[in-house]
Amino acid sequence: MAEAALQKLGRATGALAAATFGVSQCLYNVDGGERAVMFDSLRGGILPKVVAEGTHFLIPVIQRPVIIDVRSKPREIPSVTGTKDLQMVNLKLRVLWRPVVDELPTLYRELGTDFDERVLPSVGNEVLKSVVAQYNAEELLSRRAEVSERIKAEMIKRAAHFHLTLDDVAITHLTFGREFTKAIESKQVAQQEAERQQWVVEKAEQERQAAVTRAEGEAEAAIIITKAMEETGSAIVEVRRIDAAKEIAAKLAQSRNITYLPSTNSNGGGGGTGLLMNIGGDK
Question: From residue 240, how far is each of 67, 234, 254, 262 by CA, in Å?
């Protein structure tokens, strides 16, 4: 009895294991952010229907699901190309791309699962070379936003032919060759030197004009003084001497060590020459 029970239990366990294995072979999962296309060997290969997320049934051996990631992914495309004025420029283009979900069967049938490797590098290099060749080196820097927009428009148009959607296209790196960099540095140095020379010339011109104006003023002053002396004789000289004496006396009076002693004549009246004494000054 015990042996019969063990045999029945073994057969039941084997049947359960076989059923579990069979069911597992008939089910497959499509995770979030993914889609599946079904290959059916009896119905001519890739079926036109795109399988959404979730758990689905399949016929073992006859059907095989192909899981494809449909989330947006970044890719960097480097390129070395020439400008309109024959300068070499190194560019890096960042592309945020994803496949068109409804076109996944066609995309897989024509390009396989590595369609980004087959499409984006060639399309990116071709678009970069065609757009950059329409600008010279200086325009690539001064009109970078315009260049980026043209590259984005061309990339979106070309990628649509391969059932790819580009969410964003941007230039992340732009450098020129060593010769062009040296040429720009030399040009900047020459411009700075030219501006400095222009400043020197303008300064010399201003100094010349100031000297001419000062000489003209001195000449006019000499003419006025000469005319005044012809009309008044030596009176103008006396006035200048008195003004100079007042100025000297005012400056000396500001010193604490200077004392003014007025002189008197023998009759006790004024009219003599005063005396300035340096009291307590340095010996």
Answer: 110, 10, 22, 23
In the structure, what pLDDT confidence band is assigned to residue 10 with cuts at 50, 70 and 90?
low
Does residue 79 or residue 241 have the better pLDDT? 79
CB 79 within 8 A of CB 91: yes
Q: How far apart are the first and last CA of the chain?
A: 145
Question: For the purposes of burial, counting CB atoms within 10 Å of the CB of 162, is it exposed (0-12), middle (13-18) or buried (19 or more)?
Answer: buried
Q: Which residue carries 């600008």 as its tokens?
A: 135
Which residues have CB under 8 Å from 273's CB, separation 6+? 263
Using left for φ > 0, alpha for ψ between -120 and 50, and beta otherwise, residue 15 falls in alpha
88 token code pair: 């070499």
Tell me the two tokens of residue 276: 């300035």
DSSP string, 74-134: EEEEEEEEE-TTS-EEEEEEEEEEEE-GGGHHHHHHHH-S-HHHHHHHHHHHHHHHHHHTT
- What gap in Å lies between CA 160 and CA 155, rounded to an integer? 8
Query: What's the rounded Cα separation, in Å, for the pair 225 and 242?
Result: 16
Helix (H) or strand (E) holding 160: helix 144-160
Q: Which residues pair with 155 in a beta bridge?
A: none
What's the Cα-to-Cα distance from 7 to each of 2, 15, 67, 154, rounded to whole Å?
9, 12, 42, 72
Residues 6 or more apart from 192 whose CB is under 8 A from it?
none
User: Do 137 and 86 contact (CB within 8 A), yes or no?
Assistant: no
pTM: 0.57
Residue 42 burial by Cβ neighbours in a 10 Å radius (0-12, 13-18, 19+): exposed
